[in-house]
Write a structure and sequence with these properties.
This protein is an alpha+beta fold and 180 residues long. It has 3 helices and 9 strands; from the N terminus they run H-E-E-E-E-E-H-E-E-E-E-H. It is 31% helix and 34% strand. The strands form 2 sheets. It has a 5-stranded antiparallel sheet with strand order 2-3-1-6-7. A hairpin with a 2-residue loop joins strand 4 (95-103) and strand 5.
Length: 180
């Protein structure tokens, strides 16, 4: 009798565990399709325009007004997600060099920034309110790459912006350099 009870309890626990596993799997797939992932943009690199590069720092919540800073924000649309950004933080004038590289196993666009540009970007992404912030790169008024804002985003004067493909990174670098 005790063996039958033990087997029944184990079977019920396994069934309930399986249901919750498949429920979580279904929910996570739905969440992943609507969530913006760093480096993946639904908008390809826009090849027409003046090649004006702008780098923003945005958050899904509007920033609070602080002493000496404006609270006026710019809506930045990336897929289904809208970020609120103040800026742009960096422009083409803050970029010394642009190159195509890989960040780990992913393609990336490397932006070598001026010391002043690194200071401006680090000032914007450091502090207590860094949680939930993203660095957004825009070319010809279209966001083409996003990455999570972290205090070490500019490493040795280089900001790496993840790209969907190496070809997209090459196209963006050519446009920024004025080769296209």
């Amino acid at each position: 009798m005790k063996l039958i009870t033990l087997v029944t309890v184990a079977a019920v626990a396994t069934a309930l565990g399986g249901c919750s596993f498949f429920e979580k799997l279904g929910t996570s797939k739905t969440a992943a399709t609507t969530q913006v992932r760093p480096g993946i943009s639904t908008t390809p690199v826009k090849t027409t325009g003046a090649g004006n590069l702008q780098v923003y720092v945005g958050s899904t919540t509007a920033p609070k007004a602080t002493k000496g800073k404006s609270s006026k924000t710019i809506p930045l649309q990336v897929g289904d997600q809208t970020y609120q950004g103040v800026g742009p933080i960096l422009t083409s004038a803050d970029i010394k060099n642009v190159f195509v590289t890989k960040a780990g196993d992913r393609p990336a666009l490397g932006l070598r920034v001026t010391p002043e540009g690194a200071r401006k970007l680090n000032a914007e992404i450091s502090g207590k309110s860094v949680k939930g912030k993203m660095v957004l790169a825009s070319l010809n008024d279209s966001i083409f790459s996003t990455t999570i804002a972290s205090p070490g985003a500019v490493d040795d004067g280089v900001l790496l912006m993840p790209m969907a493909t190496l070809n997209n990174a090459k196209t963006a670098a050519d446009i920024i350099r004025g080769n296209q």
